[in-house]
Design a protein that fits this description.
single chain; 274 residues; alpha/beta; Rossmann fold; 2 domains; eight-stranded mixed sheet; two-stranded antiparallel ribbon; 8 helices
Protein backbone atom coordinates (compact mmCIF):
# COMPACT_ATOMS: atom_id res chain seq x y z
CA UNK A 1 0.00 0.00 0.00
CA UNK A 2 1.34 3.40 -0.95
CA UNK A 3 1.90 5.75 1.96
CA UNK A 4 2.27 9.54 2.04
CA UNK A 5 -0.86 9.61 -0.07
CA UNK A 6 -4.45 10.77 0.28
CA UNK A 7 -7.01 8.37 -1.20
CA UNK A 8 -10.14 9.82 -2.81
CA UNK A 9 -12.47 7.10 -1.53
CA UNK A 10 -14.50 5.86 1.40
CA UNK A 11 -12.24 5.29 4.39
CA UNK A 12 -13.52 1.71 4.72
CA UNK A 13 -12.06 1.01 1.26
CA UNK A 14 -8.73 2.52 2.30
CA UNK A 15 -8.54 0.59 5.56
CA UNK A 16 -9.44 -2.65 3.76
CA UNK A 17 -6.07 -2.35 1.99
CA UNK A 18 -4.17 -2.08 5.29
CA UNK A 19 -2.78 -5.05 7.22
CA UNK A 20 -3.49 -5.53 10.90
CA UNK A 21 -1.46 -3.42 13.37
CA UNK A 22 -0.30 -0.95 10.72
CA UNK A 23 -1.06 2.59 11.96
CA UNK A 24 0.74 4.33 14.84
CA UNK A 25 -1.67 7.24 15.27
CA UNK A 26 -5.03 8.33 13.88
CA UNK A 27 -6.11 11.96 14.25
CA UNK A 28 -9.55 12.66 12.82
CA UNK A 29 -12.88 14.42 13.23
CA UNK A 30 -15.97 12.70 11.80
CA UNK A 31 -18.99 14.51 10.32
CA UNK A 32 -21.07 14.11 13.46
CA UNK A 33 -24.80 14.81 13.94
CA UNK A 34 -25.15 16.46 10.50
CA UNK A 35 -23.84 19.73 11.96
CA UNK A 36 -22.12 20.51 8.66
CA UNK A 37 -22.92 19.72 5.05
CA UNK A 38 -20.52 16.99 3.88
CA UNK A 39 -21.84 16.44 0.37
CA UNK A 40 -24.59 14.17 1.64
CA UNK A 41 -22.13 11.61 3.01
CA UNK A 42 -23.17 9.64 6.07
CA UNK A 43 -20.66 7.29 7.65
CA UNK A 44 -20.96 3.78 9.09
CA UNK A 45 -19.55 4.58 12.51
CA UNK A 46 -19.42 1.09 14.01
CA UNK A 47 -17.72 -0.44 10.97
CA UNK A 48 -15.16 2.37 10.91
CA UNK A 49 -14.42 2.05 14.63
CA UNK A 50 -13.85 -1.71 14.29
CA UNK A 51 -11.52 -1.20 11.34
CA UNK A 52 -9.58 1.45 13.27
CA UNK A 53 -9.05 -1.07 16.05
CA UNK A 54 -7.80 -3.68 13.58
CA UNK A 55 -5.31 -1.43 11.80
CA UNK A 56 -3.97 0.34 14.90
CA UNK A 57 -0.71 -1.00 16.28
CA UNK A 58 -0.52 -2.32 19.82
CA UNK A 59 0.12 0.79 21.87
CA UNK A 60 -1.17 3.00 19.07
CA UNK A 61 -3.61 5.85 19.60
CA UNK A 62 -6.78 7.17 17.95
CA UNK A 63 -7.68 10.82 18.60
CA UNK A 64 -11.40 11.24 17.87
CA UNK A 65 -12.49 14.91 17.80
CA UNK A 66 -16.28 15.13 18.11
CA UNK A 67 -19.11 17.21 19.53
CA UNK A 68 -22.87 17.02 19.98
CA UNK A 69 -25.74 18.76 18.27
CA UNK A 70 -28.59 20.28 20.27
CA UNK A 71 -31.95 19.15 18.90
CA UNK A 72 -35.32 20.08 20.36
CA UNK A 73 -33.63 21.50 23.42
CA UNK A 74 -31.55 18.40 24.15
CA UNK A 75 -27.95 17.52 23.29
CA UNK A 76 -27.64 14.36 21.22
CA UNK A 77 -25.03 12.62 23.37
CA UNK A 78 -23.50 11.14 20.22
CA UNK A 79 -19.98 11.77 21.47
CA UNK A 80 -20.48 9.67 24.58
CA UNK A 81 -22.25 6.90 22.68
CA UNK A 82 -19.29 6.69 20.31
CA UNK A 83 -16.75 6.73 23.16
CA UNK A 84 -18.53 3.84 24.87
CA UNK A 85 -18.56 1.84 21.62
CA UNK A 86 -14.80 2.35 21.19
CA UNK A 87 -14.36 0.90 24.69
CA UNK A 88 -16.74 -1.97 23.89
CA UNK A 89 -14.64 -3.15 20.93
CA UNK A 90 -11.37 -3.15 22.88
CA UNK A 91 -9.94 0.37 22.98
CA UNK A 92 -8.93 2.00 26.25
CA UNK A 93 -10.31 5.48 26.84
CA UNK A 94 -6.93 6.90 27.75
CA UNK A 95 -8.06 10.51 28.13
CA UNK A 96 -11.08 12.72 27.56
CA UNK A 97 -9.60 15.99 26.42
CA UNK A 98 -11.28 19.28 25.61
CA UNK A 99 -10.78 21.34 22.46
CA UNK A 100 -11.80 24.81 23.67
CA UNK A 101 -12.48 27.45 21.02
CA UNK A 102 -11.16 30.88 21.89
CA UNK A 103 -13.27 32.74 19.33
CA UNK A 104 -16.50 30.76 18.70
CA UNK A 105 -19.31 32.12 16.58
CA UNK A 106 -21.69 34.00 18.93
CA UNK A 107 -25.19 32.53 19.04
CA UNK A 108 -28.37 33.39 20.90
CA UNK A 109 -30.04 30.61 22.90
CA UNK A 110 -31.64 30.11 26.27
CA UNK A 111 -28.51 28.28 27.40
CA UNK A 112 -24.79 28.89 27.84
CA UNK A 113 -22.97 28.77 24.53
CA UNK A 114 -21.04 25.59 23.82
CA UNK A 115 -17.47 26.57 23.04
CA UNK A 116 -15.73 23.20 22.95
CA UNK A 117 -15.53 19.75 21.41
CA UNK A 118 -14.30 16.50 22.91
CA UNK A 119 -10.97 15.01 21.93
CA UNK A 120 -11.25 11.37 22.97
CA UNK A 121 -7.86 9.70 23.12
CA UNK A 122 -8.28 5.96 22.63
CA UNK A 123 -5.35 3.58 22.93
CA UNK A 124 -4.90 -0.05 21.93
CA UNK A 125 -3.44 -1.19 25.21
CA UNK A 126 -1.09 1.18 27.00
CA UNK A 127 0.10 4.04 24.72
CA UNK A 128 3.56 3.22 23.42
CA UNK A 129 4.40 6.90 22.99
CA UNK A 130 3.73 9.93 25.13
CA UNK A 131 5.79 13.03 24.49
CA UNK A 132 4.17 15.32 27.03
CA UNK A 133 3.84 18.90 25.86
CA UNK A 134 4.88 21.59 28.29
CA UNK A 135 3.98 25.20 28.82
CA UNK A 136 5.53 28.09 30.71
CA UNK A 137 4.91 27.96 34.44
CA UNK A 138 3.33 31.13 35.83
CA UNK A 139 5.49 31.02 38.95
CA UNK A 140 8.62 29.51 37.41
CA UNK A 141 11.81 30.31 39.32
CA UNK A 142 9.98 31.27 42.51
CA UNK A 143 10.14 29.39 45.79
CA UNK A 144 7.29 26.99 46.41
CA UNK A 145 4.83 28.15 49.06
CA UNK A 146 4.80 24.77 50.77
CA UNK A 147 7.69 23.30 52.72
CA UNK A 148 8.74 19.74 51.93
CA UNK A 149 9.68 17.67 54.97
CA UNK A 150 11.96 14.63 54.94
CA UNK A 151 14.37 12.75 57.19
CA UNK A 152 18.13 12.85 56.72
CA UNK A 153 20.79 10.93 58.66
CA UNK A 154 23.17 13.17 60.69
CA UNK A 155 26.81 12.58 61.59
CA UNK A 156 25.77 10.40 64.53
CA UNK A 157 23.78 8.23 62.13
CA UNK A 158 20.53 9.47 63.62
CA UNK A 159 17.55 10.50 61.48
CA UNK A 160 16.76 14.18 61.74
CA UNK A 161 13.80 16.03 60.29
CA UNK A 162 14.69 18.43 57.48
CA UNK A 163 12.53 21.12 55.88
CA UNK A 164 13.06 22.44 52.36
CA UNK A 165 11.28 24.74 49.95
CA UNK A 166 11.77 23.78 46.30
CA UNK A 167 12.18 26.18 43.40
CA UNK A 168 9.25 25.99 40.98
CA UNK A 169 10.24 24.76 37.51
CA UNK A 170 10.07 27.18 34.57
CA UNK A 171 7.88 24.70 32.66
CA UNK A 172 5.01 22.42 33.56
CA UNK A 173 3.09 19.68 31.78
CA UNK A 174 0.01 20.97 29.99
CA UNK A 175 -3.39 19.90 31.23
CA UNK A 176 -6.00 18.24 29.01
CA UNK A 177 -7.95 21.37 28.10
CA UNK A 178 -6.38 22.86 24.97
CA UNK A 179 -7.33 26.30 23.63
CA UNK A 180 -7.23 27.20 19.94
CA UNK A 181 -8.30 30.05 17.72
CA UNK A 182 -10.72 28.78 15.08
CA UNK A 183 -11.79 30.01 11.66
CA UNK A 184 -9.95 31.66 8.77
CA UNK A 185 -7.66 33.61 11.10
CA UNK A 186 -5.99 30.31 11.92
CA UNK A 187 -6.37 28.14 8.82
CA UNK A 188 -6.63 30.70 6.05
CA UNK A 189 -9.49 30.75 3.55
CA UNK A 190 -10.09 27.01 3.14
CA UNK A 191 -13.29 25.96 1.38
CA UNK A 192 -14.24 23.37 3.97
CA UNK A 193 -17.04 23.68 6.56
CA UNK A 194 -15.02 22.62 9.59
CA UNK A 195 -11.21 22.46 9.29
CA UNK A 196 -9.69 21.96 12.70
CA UNK A 197 -6.73 24.12 13.72
CA UNK A 198 -3.32 23.13 12.41
CA UNK A 199 -1.88 23.49 15.91
CA UNK A 200 -4.40 20.98 17.26
CA UNK A 201 -3.23 18.37 14.76
CA UNK A 202 0.40 19.23 15.47
CA UNK A 203 0.00 18.93 19.22
CA UNK A 204 -1.53 15.47 19.01
CA UNK A 205 0.98 14.28 16.41
CA UNK A 206 3.87 15.39 18.63
CA UNK A 207 2.25 13.92 21.75
CA UNK A 208 1.36 10.42 20.54
CA UNK A 209 3.87 9.63 17.78
CA UNK A 210 7.55 9.80 16.95
CA UNK A 211 9.49 10.75 13.84
CA UNK A 212 8.87 8.34 10.92
CA UNK A 213 5.68 6.96 12.49
CA UNK A 214 2.60 6.50 10.30
CA UNK A 215 -0.33 8.87 10.92
CA UNK A 216 -3.81 8.28 9.47
CA UNK A 217 -6.90 10.46 9.04
CA UNK A 218 -10.01 8.60 7.89
CA UNK A 219 -11.88 11.90 7.30
CA UNK A 220 -9.04 13.91 5.80
CA UNK A 221 -11.16 16.87 4.72
CA UNK A 222 -8.92 19.77 3.74
CA UNK A 223 -5.70 17.89 4.57
CA UNK A 224 -4.70 19.39 7.92
CA UNK A 225 -3.56 16.09 9.47
CA UNK A 226 -1.46 15.14 6.43
CA UNK A 227 0.12 18.58 6.22
CA UNK A 228 1.12 18.68 9.88
CA UNK A 229 2.32 15.05 9.83
CA UNK A 230 4.58 15.85 6.90
CA UNK A 231 5.93 19.04 8.49
CA UNK A 232 6.73 17.11 11.67
CA UNK A 233 8.66 14.29 9.98
CA UNK A 234 5.88 11.69 10.07
CA UNK A 235 4.45 9.56 7.28
CA UNK A 236 0.74 9.82 6.56
CA UNK A 237 -2.23 8.20 4.87
CA UNK A 238 -5.57 9.90 4.38
CA UNK A 239 -9.05 9.07 3.11
CA UNK A 240 -11.44 11.65 1.70
CA UNK A 241 -14.61 10.78 -0.17
CA UNK A 242 -15.39 14.27 -1.49
CA UNK A 243 -13.56 15.08 -4.71
CA UNK A 244 -13.66 18.78 -3.87
CA UNK A 245 -12.08 18.40 -0.42
CA UNK A 246 -9.62 15.83 -1.78
CA UNK A 247 -8.32 18.37 -4.30
CA UNK A 248 -8.09 21.05 -1.59
CA UNK A 249 -6.02 18.67 0.52
CA UNK A 250 -3.68 17.88 -2.37
CA UNK A 251 -3.14 21.60 -3.00
CA UNK A 252 -2.29 22.22 0.65
CA UNK A 253 0.23 19.38 0.62
CA UNK A 254 1.72 20.66 -2.63
CA UNK A 255 2.12 24.13 -1.14
CA UNK A 256 4.23 22.60 1.64
CA UNK A 257 6.82 21.43 -0.85
CA UNK A 258 5.38 18.17 -2.13
CA UNK A 259 4.95 14.76 -0.62
CA UNK A 260 7.27 13.79 2.23
CA UNK A 261 9.28 10.60 1.89
CA UNK A 262 11.81 9.00 4.27
CA UNK A 263 13.83 5.84 4.71
CA UNK A 264 10.91 4.00 6.28
CA UNK A 265 8.61 4.24 3.26
CA UNK A 266 9.85 1.07 1.55
CA UNK A 267 9.67 -0.88 4.80
CA UNK A 268 6.10 0.25 5.51
CA UNK A 269 4.98 -0.44 1.94
CA UNK A 270 6.42 -3.96 2.13
CA UNK A 271 4.65 -4.48 5.45
CA UNK A 272 1.38 -3.59 3.72
CA UNK A 273 2.02 -6.27 1.12
CA UNK A 274 2.95 -4.22 -1.95
Amino acid sequence: MEINKIYNENCLDTMAKMPDNFIDLTVTSPPYDNLREYKGYSFAFEEIAKELFRITKQGGVVVWVVGDATMNGSESGTSFKQALFFKEIGFNLHDTMIYAKQNPIPLTHNRYEQQFEYMFVFSKGKPKTFNGLKEKSKYGGEMASRTRSFYKTNTENEPTLQNKRDVISDEKLRNNIWYYIVGSTQTGKIKHPAPFPEQLATDHILSWSNANDLVYDCFMGSGTTAKMAMLNNRNYIGSELSKEYYEIALNRISECGGLFFNSFQTELSNEAGT
